[in-house]
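User: I've been trying to design a sequence by hand for this structure and keep getting stuck. Would you show me what you'd pick, starting by listing the structure so we're on the same page?

Assistant: Good idea, let's start from the same input. This is the structure you sent:
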């Protein structure tokens, strides 16, 4: 699977973020040809695993990460849901419904295979695989697939994706966060156009074949940081988003654009607001 694209989401362990994961799965499924039946099974099983993180991994909501890893190939889709919480440990059954009884049985019934990994104080990984009835249309990663040692931006929500899956992953996540932040339909569409422009013109602007995006949301406001960009990559990315005589889409549809220098690469910082 070394040539397969993948997506990683890192989110606060909040109940509402389970819906965000489901939306991201829907966007990715449409890109690679996962049918409705398999998508339904995936969303249900992954939701059960995410709910376990929200309910049991940490003492308080929002105090630790919920991490989801998605890696498709032509004949199999791997999904890993993990946390850094208390880990798998004995609990009375009535307090552990997400990992015993109905929740565990449901995950086992809907997956080709499932493995629970972890221990007391080690966090937990739920490793699931799903088998489509017909081969999926999964593009290979561009270039040699090497991923530079780059720390993703620090943000509430982080999307890290190989270039073929940047557009559906980032667009799905941005849509959910913009809606939560109270964006109008028009401004939500603008936010998605910005992320589509980033994905469309990513080739040659980023270091390696992977894009990291950190997103912080507040009322009527999103702040997005994307990288790692090569030297001058921020300017190239903005300029290449120009459409006809309208100028660069990224500049026209955002409220602030800035380049932030890191040790060996650039990050592009964008603010998208809805002043109403």
């Amino acid at each position: 699977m070394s040539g397969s694209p993948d997506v990683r989401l890192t989110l606060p362990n909040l109940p509402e973020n389970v819906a965000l994961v489901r939306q991201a799965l829907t966007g990715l499924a449409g890109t690679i040809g996962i049918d409705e039946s398999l998508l339904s099974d995936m969303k249900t099983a992954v939701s059960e695993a995410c709910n376990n993180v929200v309910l049991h991994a940490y003492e308080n909501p929002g105090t630790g990460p919920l991490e989801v890893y998605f890696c498709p190939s032509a004949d199999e889709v791997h999904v890993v849901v993990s946390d850094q919480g208390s880990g798998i440990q004995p609990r009375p059954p009535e307090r552990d419904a997400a990992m015993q009884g109905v929740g565990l049985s449901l995950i086992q019934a809907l997956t080709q295979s499932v493995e629970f990994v972890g221990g007391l104080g080690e966090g937990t990984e739920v490793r699931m695989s799903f088998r489509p009835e017909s081969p999926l249309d999964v593009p290979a990663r561009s270039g040699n697939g090497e991923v530079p040692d780059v720390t993703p931006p620090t943000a509430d929500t982080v999307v890290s994706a190989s270039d073929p899956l940047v557009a559906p992953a980032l667009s799905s996540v941005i849509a959910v966060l913009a809606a939560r932040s109270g964006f109008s339909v028009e401004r939500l569409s603008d936010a998605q156009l910005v992320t589509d422009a980033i994905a469309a013109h990513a080739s040659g602007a980023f270091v390696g074949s992977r894009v990291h995006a950190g997103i912080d949301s507040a009322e009527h406001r999103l702040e997005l940081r994307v990288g790692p960009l090569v030297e001058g990559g921020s300017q190239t990315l903005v300029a290449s988003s120009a459409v006809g005589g309208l100028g660069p889409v990224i500049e026209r549809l955002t409220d602030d654009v800035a380049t932030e220098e890191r040790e060996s690469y650039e990050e592009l910082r964008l603010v998208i607001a809805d002043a109403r």
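That's my pick for every position. To get oriented when you compare it with your attempt: The domain at 7-130 is CATH 3.30.565.10 (Heat Shock Protein 90). Residues 89-101 have pLDDT under 50 and may be disordered.
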